[in-house]
Protein backbone atom coordinates (compact mmCIF):
# COMPACT_ATOMS: atom_id res chain seq x y z
CA UNK A 1 0.00 0.00 0.00
CA UNK A 2 1.58 3.34 1.04
CA UNK A 3 5.19 3.76 2.11
CA UNK A 4 4.21 6.51 4.53
CA UNK A 5 3.65 5.49 8.12
CA UNK A 6 0.43 6.79 9.68
CA UNK A 7 1.22 8.39 13.03
CA UNK A 8 -0.21 6.64 16.08
CA UNK A 9 -3.33 8.33 17.42
CA UNK A 10 -3.01 10.29 20.62
CA UNK A 11 -4.43 8.47 23.65
CA UNK A 12 -8.00 9.42 24.46
CA UNK A 13 -7.91 8.32 28.07
CA UNK A 14 -10.66 5.78 27.34
CA UNK A 15 -9.06 2.33 27.53
CA UNK A 16 -11.45 0.64 25.10
CA UNK A 17 -11.21 3.41 22.53
CA UNK A 18 -7.42 3.52 22.75
CA UNK A 19 -7.20 -0.24 22.32
CA UNK A 20 -9.43 -0.14 19.22
CA UNK A 21 -7.47 2.74 17.69
CA UNK A 22 -4.15 0.99 18.35
CA UNK A 23 -5.53 -2.12 16.67
CA UNK A 24 -6.27 -0.14 13.52
CA UNK A 25 -2.62 0.80 12.98
CA UNK A 26 -1.86 -2.10 10.65
CA UNK A 27 -5.17 -2.15 8.77
CA UNK A 28 -3.98 -0.08 5.77
CA UNK A 29 -1.36 -2.77 5.08
CA UNK A 30 -3.99 -5.53 4.83
CA UNK A 31 -5.60 -6.60 1.56
CA UNK A 32 -8.62 -4.45 0.80
CA UNK A 33 -11.16 -7.24 1.44
CA UNK A 34 -9.70 -7.76 4.95
CA UNK A 35 -9.72 -4.05 5.74
CA UNK A 36 -13.51 -3.88 5.65
CA UNK A 37 -13.87 -6.60 8.29
CA UNK A 38 -11.32 -4.87 10.54
CA UNK A 39 -13.06 -1.51 10.24
CA UNK A 40 -16.44 -3.12 10.92
CA UNK A 41 -15.08 -4.77 14.07
CA UNK A 42 -13.62 -1.45 15.19
CA UNK A 43 -16.93 0.28 14.53
CA UNK A 44 -18.85 -2.28 16.59
CA UNK A 45 -16.35 -2.05 19.45
CA UNK A 46 -16.50 1.75 19.48
CA UNK A 47 -20.30 1.72 19.29
CA UNK A 48 -20.43 -0.69 22.24
CA UNK A 49 -18.11 1.60 24.21
CA UNK A 50 -20.31 4.57 23.37
CA UNK A 51 -23.47 2.68 24.34
CA UNK A 52 -21.85 1.74 27.64
CA UNK A 53 -20.85 5.34 28.27
CA UNK A 54 -24.39 6.51 27.55
CA UNK A 55 -25.79 3.91 29.97
CA UNK A 56 -23.26 4.94 32.64
CA UNK A 57 -24.15 8.60 32.06
CA UNK A 58 -27.89 7.91 32.36
CA UNK A 59 -27.34 5.88 35.54
CA UNK A 60 -25.43 8.81 37.03
CA UNK A 61 -28.19 11.23 36.05
CA UNK A 62 -30.78 8.94 37.63
CA UNK A 63 -28.81 8.88 40.90
CA UNK A 64 -28.63 12.69 40.90
CA UNK A 65 -32.33 12.97 40.07
CA UNK A 66 -33.28 10.55 42.85
CA UNK A 67 -31.20 12.52 45.35
CA UNK A 68 -32.90 15.78 44.36
CA UNK A 69 -36.45 14.44 44.34
CA UNK A 70 -36.91 14.60 40.55
CA UNK A 71 -39.08 11.87 39.10
CA UNK A 72 -37.38 11.28 35.74
CA UNK A 73 -34.28 12.00 33.70
CA UNK A 74 -34.51 14.05 30.50
CA UNK A 75 -34.55 11.81 27.46
CA UNK A 76 -36.21 8.94 29.28
CA UNK A 77 -39.89 8.19 29.57
CA UNK A 78 -41.30 9.48 32.82
CA UNK A 79 -42.61 6.83 35.17
CA UNK A 80 -46.29 6.99 35.98
CA UNK A 81 -45.82 7.83 39.66
CA UNK A 82 -49.01 9.82 40.15
CA UNK A 83 -51.41 6.96 39.50
CA UNK A 84 -52.38 8.38 36.11
CA UNK A 85 -53.95 11.48 37.64
CA UNK A 86 -52.97 13.73 34.76
CA UNK A 87 -50.59 16.67 34.43
CA UNK A 88 -47.22 17.26 36.05
CA UNK A 89 -48.71 18.38 39.35
CA UNK A 90 -51.26 15.59 39.44
CA UNK A 91 -54.07 17.79 38.15
CA UNK A 92 -56.51 16.39 35.64
CA UNK A 93 -56.92 18.28 32.38
UniProtKB/TrEMBL annotation:
Organism domain of life: Bacteria
Gly residues bias spans: 83-93
Region (Disordered): 67-93
Protein name per Swiss-Prot or TrEMBL: Uncharacterized protein
